[in-house]
Amino acid sequence: MALDQSALLDLLGELKLTDVTDRIRVATETLYQELIDAEAAAFIGAAPFERSTDRTTHRNGTRPRTLSTTAGDLDLKIPKLRAGSFFPALLERRRRVDQALFAVVMEAYVHGVSTRKVDDLVKALGADTGISKSEVSRICAGLDAEVAEFRDRTLAAQDFPYVFLDATYCKARVGHRIVSQAIVVAVGVAADGRREVLGFDVGDSENEGFWTSFLRSLKTRGLDGVKLVMSDAHTGLKKAIGTVFQGAGWQRCRVHFMRNVLAVVPKGSQEMVASIIRTIFAQPDREHIEKQFREVTTMLGRSHPKVAAMLVDAQPDLLAFAGFPRRH
């Protein structure tokens, strides 16, 4: 599909308004787009708005594609179809090696590696042409879009009766400073046992207000049917759970509880005490769980009274799971 005189004059007018150093890129971009549109017309069997008995499908908008060339980054539009798919032969689909390379670039960018060092890294991995600053920005902008789509997806299609909540801290670049940031994560478990990361957020600290806002965002996205929430005994988190998930039970994380227990146990006795406590959670039903709990607290009351007192104090929260189906 050759450019007609009118299209050529339009292109000439556009090039006159373009900086001299960018004219090759604009002309190349126009040529590539024309070739893509021509191939699409041949694939469909008709040009846009053309009536033809050879037509096999219709166009349905376009999707953007950036192509890096020696003339610069070309912003192209690939036609989408109502039925079937089309990808121009002029372009190369992203290969697995490209995906791995993109992951390396993203990881380096997240860790604050300079663009020049990223370029050196890409060349060392076998890409002789290296990578430009604009290409690094484009790759990471694509990552932002994928993360945003994941974080904002609806949760209404599936109930998650069980939700695990936890937080960790890591160093992050905020402005021009490296500071500690709290990353909170929610993992849901469906009745069939399928696990799914429901969401996450980043903040200065995991206080009650931050947790409350995060949990409300999950409910806004459609999280429903929550019966039991598992977490550590962080005061702000417990209050947030009680506020947002009224009516749901709270199960104290036994891993965090065990750490608290072992902190008051001499090192030489820690493995023995931990093994005894674990027998509580290995019972088949509520009756046996509660019976074993009484036996364990009686046993430890003689040798480790502080541990026994901690168990008794935490009993309702540690055994909340016992009221749910055995297979769960």
Give your account of this protein's structure.
There is one protein chain. The chain has 328 residues and is an alpha/beta fold. It folds into four domains: 1-88, no CATH class; 94-152; 156-226; 253-328. Helices cover 46% and strands 20% of the residues. The protein is built from eleven helices and seven strands. The protein has helices at 5-16, 23-44, 96-110, 115-124, 133-152, 208-220, 235-244, 254-262, 270-278, 286-303, 305-318, and strands at residues 59-69, 72-81, 162-174, 177-189, 195-203, 228-231, 249-252. The strands form two sheets. A five-stranded mixed β-sheet has the order 5-4-3-6-7, with helices on both faces. Helix 3 packs across helix 5, helix 6 runs parallel beside helix 7 (235-244) and helix 10 runs antiparallel to helix 11 (305-318). The chain is elongated, with a radius of gyration of 30 Å. The mean pLDDT is 86.
